[in-house]
TrEMBL record:
Residue span, HNH nuclease domain: 63-112
The protein's name in its UniProt record: HNH endonuclease
Keyword S-adenosyl-L-methionine carried by entry: no
Record keyword Nucleotide-binding present: no
Signal peptide region: none
Residue stretches in coiled coil: none
Organism (species): Agrococcus jenensis
């Protein structure tokens, strides 16, 4: 026990000179990584629908005019590349649902570099700010990673009913 305490004291003494910049640095990292309050999926289960298809995919692509919605650099400007995929702003693997309000059109490069990180507040705010300049009039620019009652109801019926009827005949 005594040895442990002395080791702890030693470590603290070693850290002491670094505290004036270490503490602000840790605070800054925590602030920059903080998610957008009230927009994430919370503790939702994974959406059984894994990818954007059909109507939702077309809507997300069209409202972005088929151009990548990512920033050109960190949070500035807008990427010039054509959009090739529809991505979950709040990752599907972390409970982000496959709904239009959680979708964004991305180019291949930005989709690959984004990964499965939970987007921090400045990422979401930056996306919403860019969207105000190109979204069709009346379209909601805000990101919401939650399912509506309609979204939930849609998941209780088979997604591709035609195939079923074909199999029966
Ligand atoms: Zn891009």
């Amino acid at each position: 026990m005594d040895v442990l305490l002395r080791a702890l004291e030693g470590a603290l003494a070693m850290l002491q000179p670094a505290l004036p910049w270490l503490v602000p640095l840790l605070v800054a990292v925590a602030v920059l990584r903080f998610p957008m309050p009230g927009r994430g999926p919370g503790f939702a289960r994974r959406d059984p629908w894994r990818t954007f298809r059909f109507g939702p995919r077309a809507t997300v692509m069209e409202r972005a005019a088929r151009r990548c919605e990512s920033a050109a650099f960190i949070a500035w400007g807008r990427c010039d590349a054509p959009a090739t995929e529809v991505d979950h702003v709040f990752p599907w693997s972390r409970g982000g649902p496959t709904v239009e309000s959680n979708g964004q059109a991305l180019c291949r490069g930005h989709n690959r570099s984004k990964g499965a990180m939970r987007p921090p507040w400045w990422y979401v705010l930056g996306l919403e700010r860019r969207r105000r300049s190109y979204f069709p009039a009346g379209a909601d620019v805000r990101v919401f990673a939650v399912m509506s009652d309609d979204d939930r109801a849609a998941r209780t019926v088979p997604r591709v009913p035609e195939r079923r009827s074909r199999m029966r005949s």
